[in-house]
Design goal:
With 118 residues, this protein is an all-alpha fold. Helix 2 packs antiparallel against helix 3. The longest helix has 28 residues.
Length: 118
């Protein structure tokens, strides 16, 4: 496993919903191309039973396209593929971690100030 991805990490381990919500238009195009390409192949090669062969091939193509689109999206979120749009939209994991620490420190300072005033 690669520990240092070449691009900034948006998430170390993105959830299913986060990964699916981060799909790009190119991922949807990949899914459509795999589905339609497989359907075409099944139709052309399934001479005696073209309809069922095309439907089966399209199902396999949709499955392969879904896996490929998911892999690309999660790869971008984990920093293994170019992810400029995702970083701009969601920020980096380190940035969110630092913001959370700063917020906790601010709350502690407020609590100390309130305690001194009492």
């Amino acid at each position: 496993m690669i520990n240092n991805p070449p691009f900034p990490k948006v998430s170390d381990s993105p959830t299913l919903s986060f990964t699916l919500s981060s799909l790009r238009l190119s991922d949807y195009a990949t899914l459509a191309f795999c589905t339609f390409g497989s359907w075409s192949f099944g139709y052309v090669t399934g001479k005696p039973v073209r309809g069922p062969a095309a439907a089966t091939a399209a199902t396999l193509g949709f499955t392969a396209g879904s896996i490929l689109a998911y892999q690309n999206s999660s790869g971008r979120l984990m920093g293994f593929l170019e992810n400029g749009r995702e970083v701009k939209r969601y920020g980096t994991e380190e940035g969110r971690r630092q913001a959370k620490i700063a917020e906790e420190q601010r709350k502690i300072q407020e609590a100390l100030r309130d305690a001194r005033e009492e």
